[in-house]
Amino acid sequence: QVRLVESGGGLVQPGGSLRLSCAASGFTFSNYAMRWYRQAPGKERELVASISNFGSTTRYADSVKGRFTISRDNAKNTVYLQMNSLKPEDTAVYYCNAHRWEDYWGQGTQVTVSS
Questions:
Q1: Contact between 81 and 68 (Cβ < 8 Å)
Q2: pLDDT by residue (tens digit) across 6-33?
Q3: Residue 19 to residues 11, 81, 93: CA-CA distances in angstroms?
Q4: In the chain, what percentage of residues exceed pLDDT 70?
Q5: What does the angle CA 69 – CA 29 – CA 61 come to, to the nearest 5 degrees?
Q6: Dihedral angle of Cα 17, 18, 19, 21, to the nearest 10 degrees
Q7: 111, 90 contact by CB (below 8 A)
Q8: How far apart are CA 46 and CA 37, in angstroms?
């Protein structure tokens, strides 16, 4: 059974940091590129960051470039999203995605940036 379980979300003040984790099981993790998406209320889901299956290539949305870092540990079947200098506009539900010929999704974790 494929599972992607996100954790690490919460409430943080502007300028603060959070680290999201996504633990994967039920498939060969190192065969899949991993992505973080987010969806704010009333908005479409957007791609935030991606990382290739062995971590050699990363890409970021312009809105988070220089503030967010995606990484992965294939030995732990886990992908991370380090989020620094958070802004209120980063508030959203963050979803983990595994991508190859098919897509697997996690249930999402809420990130709220507010004073």
A1: yes
A2: 999 999 999 999 999 999 999 999 999 9
A3: 12, 6, 14
A4: 100
A5: 30
A6: -160
A7: yes
A8: 5
